[in-house]
Design a protein that fits this description.
The structure is a single chain. The chain has about 260 residues and is an alpha/beta fold. The protein has one domain. The chain is built from four helices and 14 strands. α2 (about 60-65) packs across α3 (about 65-75). The longest helix has 9 residues, at about 80-90.
């Protein structure tokens, strides 16, 4: 069975053996006894730009994550990955039985990153990912920034579940270190996650559990570093549990 975390990591290879995933027994993330850093509980007054429909759809990652689509475009059946997804990818499955994966990315500034509102396996990240297609490695990508000084709103698709929100980088041949996003400005840089469905959706964090602290505050779930640097606010969720841990890539999930 494909493990949940590998679905994000597969975006640049399309396949990976389950044996490569070093899973651990998931602990429960509990609320620490220490007083958390005060964080905003409403949408920031500095409103990120609202995208126009497919503005955040990442064409390059869609083609890499769904290599059969690139072949169909070469055959002249579709003009782009976006055309394929809106025509058939949003409702049909691939030949291996998996859903077509979509990728919605931001920039090095404040962003509102949202999907097209449909699709069962969508990835959201407030920064952009740089791909090195000439590198003969399974995962030739790295983040173009780490979100320092940014306030991003990540809006998942409603209904089907399967949204994944990336809050840190993972280890690749071109990115040797996994690092958390939105570190460096305290509560002035973070991601606000909306339309999160508990047990169906997931956030992906870099590093390990001991680097973070968690708090339920006013009906939202806050993720911070142990130093009190706010990473994310998950709206409408009181608690998340640690899911799969992948030491090879330096990341773990919370659902």
């Amino acid at each position: 069975m494909r493990q949940f975390i590998l679905r994000t990591l597969l975006i640049v290879s399309g396949a990976l053996a389950i044996a490569a995933c070093q899973a651990e027994t998931p602990p429960v993330a509990t609320t620490p006894a220490t007083t958390p850093t005060t964080a905003p509980t409403t949408i920031p007054t500095t409103t990120p730009s609202i995208p126009n429909d497919a503005a955040n759809f990442n064409e390059a990652l869609y083609l890499i994550g769904n290599p059969d689509v690139a072949d169909l475009i070469k055959q002249g059946k579709y003009k782009s990955g976006l055309e394929h997804f809106t025509a058939v990818g949003k409702t049909t499955k691939k030949t291996d039985g998996e859903d077509y994966e979509t990728f919605y990315t931001g920039t090095s500034g404040n962003d509102t990153v949202q999907g097209l509102g449909y699709g069962k396996h969508a990835h959201f990240v407030g920064i952009n990912l740089e791909v090195f297609p000439d590198r003969k490695t399974p995962f030739p990508l790295r983040p173009q920034s780490l979100g320092k000084g940014e306030i991003d709103i990540l809006i998942g698709n409603k209904g089907g579940g399967g949204n994944e929100f990336l809050l840190g980088s993972f280890i690749t041949p071109v990115n040797p270190k996994s690092e958390a996003f939105y570190v460096g400005k305290g509560s002035e840089d973070y991601a606000r996650i909306q339309n999160f469905t508990e047990s169906k959706d997931a956030v992906i964090l870099a590093g390990d559990l001991k680097q973070y602290k968690f708090e339920s505050k006013e009906g939202n779930f806050q993720i911070s570093t142990t130093d009190g640097d706010l990473i994310a606010i998950v709206e409408g969720i009181n608690q998340l549990k640690v899911g799969e841990v992948n030491k090879e890539f330096g990341v773990f999930t919370m659902k």
